[in-house]
Amino acid sequence: MIEKSDTNHVEKYDAIRDNLLEMNLGFIRLQNQLSNDSAKVMTQLGNFVNALAKVTSKLEEVKNEISEVRKQNAELHDKVQHMETELRVLRGTTMVGTGSASSPLTAPPVHSSIACTIPPMERTVQHPIVMVKKIVSDGSEQTVAIKAQFSWKLYEDLLKQALGSAYKREHFLMAKSNIKPVALRACLRLRNDYEARTGESTVHWKDIENDLQVNAFFEFEEAARHLFPLCMCVGNWGARLLLRKYWSITYNSRRNRTAVPSKALEESDTSSDSENE
């Protein structure tokens, strides 16, 4: 009986040992499988991270390309507007000396009168002086003399001095209606000269070198001699005021890289004319 009981215990022990060994082997297999699965997951995760990095890099490239295209479009837009402005200027020059539908005269009667009366380089008319009131540092009001700002009356008076008793109001109205394209062409020539010298196309009047301005004044006086006797003005003040007026209307807004639309250009010019008559 004792031997039989020992045998049973040994068999049970062997069975339990075998089960434990089998469970240990199963655990080892499971551990290996989990390790392999973890390695696969880590590999897949690494591949995903790499793919995500490539996508992010590609998106950054696309973003840069879009920014570059926008920049090029903005530059192209500015160039187109600049060309449109210059085209309006060049088209406007065809109006000089031909009259227009709104002009009170079909022919400029002032041409021959000025050409015969005013020698090209006879400068006798000083820049008009006006008296204005000014508040000084101590708070008191003083009257000071300053050079007159632009007004069309200055140019009507200039015509009166040139033509004398032959002057008629129609002379001034015709000259005023035809001077704009001549002035715009002079401004365009001046801007091109400045750009050729400096490489810059955006500039305020005060930034233009004096020698370029003076050359523009003489050329403008010659081009406009059949409209206003600008060659009578000492120090080119007549040409200076007119060119500064049309430069301000046409080019000063380019500082912000914004061209003046044609409608706004016409309205601005009309407004300036009516205010300064």
Characterization of this structure:
The protein is mainly α and 277 residues long. The chain folds into two domains: 84 residues; 153 residues, no CATH class. It contains seven helices and two strands. It has a two-stranded antiparallel sheet with strand order 1-2. Helix 1 packs across helix 4. The longest helix has 91 residues. It is rod-shaped, with a radius of gyration of 43 Å. The C terminus is likely disordered.
Architecture blueprint of SSEs:
Elements: H1 2-92, H2 110-117, E1 129-135, E2 141-147, H3 152-163, H4 169-198, H5 210-223, H6 237-250, H7 262-276
Antiparallel strand pairs: 1-2
Mean pLDDT comes to: 74
CA-based gyration radius: 43 Å
Total number of distinct structural domains: 2
Name the poorly predicted regions.
Answer: 92-119, 253-277
What gap, in angstroms, lies between the N and C termini?
142 Å
Task: Kindly report the spatial arrangement of strands forming the biggest sheet.
Answer: 1-2
Classify the beta-strand content into a percent band.
Answer: 5-15%
Largest sheet: 2 strands, antiparallel
Write down how many β-strands occur, each being a DSSP E stretch of 2 or more residues. 2
The topology string of helices and strands comes to HHEEHHHHH
Give the CA-based shape.
Answer: rod-shaped
Q: What is the count of DSSP helices, taking H or I runs of 4+ residues?
A: 7
**SS-derived structural category:** mainly alpha
